[in-house]
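Retro notes (design track)

What went well: tokenization of the new backbones is finally stable.
What didn't: we kept losing track of which sequence belonged to which structure.
Fix going forward: every design gets posted as structure first, then sequence, in one message. First example under the new rule, 921 residues:
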């Protein structure tokens, strides 16, 4: 048959299936679209006729929001079609995946035709052009387009439709050629081969290699998607994740380089979720809840937000009612706070908190705690999943916040404003998997007794976050915290499970009561004695994974593993209390009150009956005592008991009621075996009287000969700064900083991190005077750059013993002032006062006026310096707010110690300038 080519010379062309076609027009690896387009052009066929002639099927009519029935990406509908033949088989080879795996649908898109102008000008299109993560054509390295260059209209669906194939290679809107021109070459394959078809084959081979690894994917259709471009984000995230599974050797600019993209590799557990029994699933859910609460506390502090003590209800109100610009003057609502609220809502079930009643425990959504069900992950990997979910929510909140800030006009009169305010509220249905839209993951099943691998990735191409390195630093810091949290929290939980299992295996009759004392690890109290429902148990869940008193005590003792001698001494002291509570009192440890502690203190000096409590030399049974306790031993045991209950209150296990608080704050009661003088030499933990405070300031301010500048500074650091002797000794000149007209101290507490302390005017004056006298310079604090500076010279340059001697000298001078005023009682008490009394006195004054809640004295932040350098400026109060609050506290110090911070800084600068100026010749 002789026919004339549409754009070429007449040629002898064969018939294939009744249509004109020759293999010279075919290119290895070309897409089904380019094959059908050239076939339609040569035979003058519309899309309807083409579908009938090649596949024996009619066109699909109507609009489809999801996958089109005649899509050309996967070609499932081409298999076993009525018109199956050589042409339909050739078209089927042009789909992106002949295996029709879920992988091809996860990385490619059929919403629009994506094309390279150079390829399309020669009548060629490759199926990998539909991969959205590919930014450039693998053959010509041109940017892939999905719109008409002339009119800007989007290209039609990548499906067998009239819009795409009635006028192939042309825009159906304006009729212009997509490539600007079109030349139908008889030997198109030769031109494309000259451009290097191996690159396209490389991508297809890469897809086959990844499919050979057999990664498993979640049900992506079950994700809740609120953003218009979430499908695109998801496909890009998938291919970026797969590049970590199997390297894709393409130039860096060939793929979409998002501004933020992170992939975390994790491990799979040996046991899959489907193999777990219901008790094992319940135990795993409990482990995940413990890990989540510990990570939630770490995250709140790592973001520098632990100064804002808002409960869940406050966070919900911030999310639903307030604009992102701020809430009042004292609390600036940051994006991290809003993202934290979204993140909590994503993970936690809703709770009904009734005032006056015990709050229900935090429960995780089963879809999150059992993620993924198909292949169980390790605890550390699950925590990294939590961290990446927060990053996804932070990105969404940043984008939302920028949208509100740019919207005009702002307010309820703008309907778009209201719609945007409602958009950030999480639209999560409990039945669906609550993954954030920018997150994806893939995993390989364990094979040959080896653990499988898992990849979690998050990506976004928005420009909402001002610091692109923040998330990278956050992930690196999180990876270190995850290991620590998993080790510390799960160790306590495992011990609790073992203890609970031992109790369950014990016969009921043997755990009803305790008749005689036993070692701490041998005690097996009944449910009425174990403290699971003690009188002073806190209503909220404790910060440690324990259920009863013995488990909490064991966790506390394990904190002294580094000091075996201290741990052994503390164990012996606590064994006396626990056995006395169980045997003599018949009460749980968490139900003991002030009367019980006073009775126990008296019992230590005379344990009765002797046969039950004191071990005889010839007796083999264990007893808590070898002899009645001396006054020094009684004081030591009561100190250990006090330390234990302070820790139980700190971890929110045992509450500090009115009786227990009195016991914890006053000195130990003198027993009958103690004399009055021994009792008076007890502790220096009582607060000072107003007259004693006045005597101290008169001594340090009006007696420079007897109390030099160094002594006065130490006294003010201990009182106004509320610092201990080691904290004063560790201060360096770089720990004194100036921020917006305020003087700050960064104190090294015993716990990790530093605490920011705003110096009140008396302390600020003493610090600046000492810096000028010592020729030192304070640091400028801007966005935490203080932590990046090298430590300066020591502020005092004294040892702890010398600091203690100088403070004692200042108190002795104050005692002489009191004696000169005829106050013998104060003169007797002042030499015995220590740093604990000084800082407790000022803390009590602040509490009385409500200043302890103002944030003037910061909070300890457990955060690495590498991450802290990247955190935006937060945790500092405004200059006006600091001045106003310090002015409201001016009645707490003498009138001669009242200074203006502005005047102090101005005078300090002028004196330094005059001191450093060259002398006139």
């Amino acid at each position: 048959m002789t026919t004339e080519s549409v754009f070429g010379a007449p040629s002898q062309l064969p018939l294939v299936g009744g249509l004109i076609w020759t293999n010279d027009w075919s290119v290895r690896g070309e897409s089904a679209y380019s094959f059908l387009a050239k076939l339609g052009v040569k035979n003058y066929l519309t899309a309807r006729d083409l579908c009938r002639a090649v596949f024996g099927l009619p066109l699909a009519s109507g609009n489809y929001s999801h996958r089109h029935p005649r899509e050309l990406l996967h070609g499932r509908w081409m298999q076993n079609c009525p018109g199956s033949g050589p042409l339909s088989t050739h078209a089927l080879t042009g789909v992106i995946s002949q295996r029709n795996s879920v992988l091809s649908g996860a990385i490619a898109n059929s919403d629009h035709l994506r094309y390279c102008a150079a390829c399309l000008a020669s009548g060629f299109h490759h199926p990998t052009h539909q991969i959205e993560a590919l930014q450039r054509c693998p053959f010509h390295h041109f940017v892939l387009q999905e719109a008409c260059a002339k009119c800007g209209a989007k290209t039609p669906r990548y499906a067998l439709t009239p819009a795409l194939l009635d006028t192939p290679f042309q825009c159906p809107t304006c009729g212009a050629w997509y490539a600007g021109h079109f030349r139908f070459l008889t030997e198109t394959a030769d031109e494309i081969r000259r451009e290097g078809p191996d690159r396209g084959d490389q991508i297809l081979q890469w897809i086959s290699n990844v499919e050979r690894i057999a990664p498993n994917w979640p049900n992506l259709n079950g994700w809740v998607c609120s953003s218009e471009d979430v499908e695109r984000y998801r496909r890009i995230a998938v291919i970026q994740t797969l590049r970590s599974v199997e390297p894709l050797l393409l130039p860096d600019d060939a793929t979409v380089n998002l501004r933020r993209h992170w992939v975390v590799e994790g491990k799979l557990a040996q046991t899959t979720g489907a193999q777990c029994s219901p008790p094992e699933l319940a135990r795993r859910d409990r482990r995940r809840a413990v890990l989540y609460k510990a990570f939630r506390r770490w995250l709140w502090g790592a973001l520098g937000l632990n100064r804002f003590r808002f409960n869940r209800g406050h966070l919900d109100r911030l999310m639903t009612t307030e604009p992102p610009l701020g809430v009042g003057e004292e609390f600036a609502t940051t994006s991290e706070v809003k993202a934290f609220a979204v993140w909590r809502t994503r993970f936690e079930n809703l709770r009904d908190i009734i005032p006056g009643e015990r709050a229900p425990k935090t429960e995780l959504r089963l879809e999150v705690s059992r993620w993924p069900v198909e292949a169980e992950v390790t605890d550390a990997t699950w925590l990294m999943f939590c961290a990446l979910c927060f990053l996804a929510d932070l990105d969404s909140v940043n984008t939302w916040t920028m949208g509100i800030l740019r919207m005009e006009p702002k307010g309820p009169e703008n309907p778009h404003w209201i719609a945007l305010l409602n958009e950030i509220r999480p639209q999560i249905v409990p039945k669906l998997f609550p993954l954030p839209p920018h997150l994806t993951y893939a995993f390989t099943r364990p094979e040959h007794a080896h653990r499988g691998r898992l990849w979690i990735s998050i990506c976004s191409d928005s420009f909402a976050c001002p610091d692109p390195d923040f998330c990278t630093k956050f992930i690196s810091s999180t990876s270190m915290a995850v290991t620590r949290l998993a080790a510390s929290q799960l160790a306590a939980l495992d011990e609790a499970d073992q203890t609970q299992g031992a109790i369950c295996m014990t016969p009921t009759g043997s755990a009803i009561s305790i008749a005689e004392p036993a070692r701490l690890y041998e005690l097996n109290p009944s449910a009425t004695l174990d403290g699971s429902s003690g009188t002073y148990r806190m209503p909220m869940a404790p910060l440690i994974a324990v259920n009863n008193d013995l488990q909490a005590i064991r966790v506390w003792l394990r904190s002294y593993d580094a000091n075996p001698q201290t741990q052994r001494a503390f164990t012996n002291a606590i064994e006396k209390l626990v056995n006395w509570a169980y045997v003599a009192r018949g009460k749980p440890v968490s139900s003991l009150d002030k009367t019980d502690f006073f009775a126990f203190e008296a019992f230590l000096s005379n344990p009765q009956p002797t046969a039950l409590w004191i071990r005889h030399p010839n007796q083999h049974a264990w007893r808590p005592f070898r002899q009645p306790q001396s006054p020094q031993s009684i004081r030591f045991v009561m100190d250990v008991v006090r330390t234990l209950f302070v820790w139980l209150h700190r971890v929110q296990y045992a509450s500090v009621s009115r009786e227990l608080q009195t016991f914890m704050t006053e000195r130990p009661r003198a027993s009958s075996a103690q004399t009055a003088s021994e009792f008076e030499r007890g502790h220096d933990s009582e607060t000072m009287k107003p007259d004693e405070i006045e005597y101290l300031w008169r001594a340090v301010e009006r007696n420079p000969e007897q109390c030099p500048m160094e002594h006065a500074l130490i006294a003010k650091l201990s009182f106004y700064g509320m610092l201990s002797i080691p904290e004063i000794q560790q201060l360096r000149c770089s720990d004194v900083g100036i921020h917006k007209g305020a003087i700050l101290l960064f104190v090294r507490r015993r716990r990790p991190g530093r605490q920011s302390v705003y110096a009140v005017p008396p302390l600020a004056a003493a610090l600046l005077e000492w810096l000028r006298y010592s020729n030192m310079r304070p640091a400028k604090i801007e966005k935490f750059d203080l932590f990046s500076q090298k430590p300066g010279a020591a502020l005092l340059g004294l040892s702890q013993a010398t600091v203690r001697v100088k403070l004692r000298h200042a108190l002795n001078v104050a005692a002489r002032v009191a004696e000169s005023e005829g106050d013998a009682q104060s003169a007797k008490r002042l030499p015995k006062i220590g740093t604990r009394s000084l800082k407790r006195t000022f803390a009590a004054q602040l509490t009385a006026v409500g200043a302890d809640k103002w944030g003037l004295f910061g909070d300890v932040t457990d955060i690495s310096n590498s991450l802290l350098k990247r955190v935006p400026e937060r945790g500092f109060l405004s200059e006006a707010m600091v001045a106003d609050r310090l002015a409201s506290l001016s009645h707490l110090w003498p009138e001669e110690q009242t200074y203006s911070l502005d005047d102090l800084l101005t005078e300090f600068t002028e004196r330094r300038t005059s001191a450093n100026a060259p002398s006139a010749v």
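Added context from the reviewer: The chain has a mean pLDDT of 71.
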